[in-house]
Amino acid sequence: MDIILNKYFQSLGLAAGQHVIVHSSFGEIKKAFTEVTIENLVRNLQQLITPNGSLVMPAFTYCYKRSDGTHEVFNYVQSQSKVGAVSEVFRQQDKVLRTSSPTHSFSLWGKAAEIISQKNSPASPLGKGSVLDWMNSRKNAYVLLIGVDFNALSFGHYLENMAPVPWTDISPWDYLKVEKAGVSITGEQKLKELPGCSKPFKNFEKFLLEKKLIEYHSLNHLKSLLVSMELLYKEGLRYFHLYQDELLCPEGTCVPCDCRREKIRILHNTAGPKGSLLEKCSKKKV
User: Fold this and answer.
1) Residues 73 and 184: beta-carbon distance below 8 Å
2) The whole model's pTM is what?
3) pLDDT at residue 272, rounded to an integer
4) Which among 33, 233, 40 is positioned nearest to 153, based on CA atoms?
5) Beta strand 187-190 with 106-110: parallel, antiparallel or unpaired?
6) Across the strands, what pairs with 225?
7) FRET partner for 239 with CA separation of 20 to 30 A, picked from 5, 38, 114, 268?
8) Crossing angle, helix 229-242 and helix 201-210, to 10 degrees?
9) pLDDT of residue 76
10) What is the pLDDT at residue 1?
11) How far apart are CA 94 and CA 278, in angstroms?
12) What is the pLDDT of residues 60-82, one digit of tens each?
């Protein structure tokens, strides 16, 4: 199994010294490699990247403060990752460092774990000062998608901040009573931005596919992609600046995106259509 996985990852372009953030679906991976374990998967990634590179995975917990007091409290050791089985197993392994953001922590192995502080917890959790910001400053940084698409692209939220889009500092989660703060066992942390819906990042993916700038690789129906952050950043800044109407879900289909639209309209004193999700968002504001 290790040999098969190794060849598969090599075919994607993984190599020693790369700094790689991984987004994956273990369910999809198991369909293609029925004997694989998460430990197999992680070990092969580490062997290819080597400690001279970095293996990074999100370990998000979304421990936001809620006005009704129902929020979870982030514990660096005990709080489980809410972004997949691979992420949860990886964060608990030896020589893996987890950062301290109560909402958007990351698990790091290799060079990133040597350079980035365990205390990393910026007010912009996926923007300036974040692990994504550090990776974007590396010349050899990549995003690896295994069995998932741009719906899982955390780097898309970084691009929202860097472009920036008009709603980057507008909370989309009022209807869930979420406040602009994270909560951990060490106290509360005020946040500048609350990342919202990632479904529209599929439009950015379509744009890159149509320009033939990226290409998914398939094996036994498992689709994977290794793409450089340099390309994502260069093309993303342009796309996120020029095609902002494609970076929110279609009106009336997504409460978080409609909440942002409503707040932008209020700021600009413009009227929008009544009913459906816009009305729900307004009624549920805290």
Assistant:
1) yes
2) 0.92
3) 54
4) 233
5) unpaired
6) 145
7) 268
8) 110
9) 93
10) 61
11) 47
12) 999 999 999 999 999 999 999 99
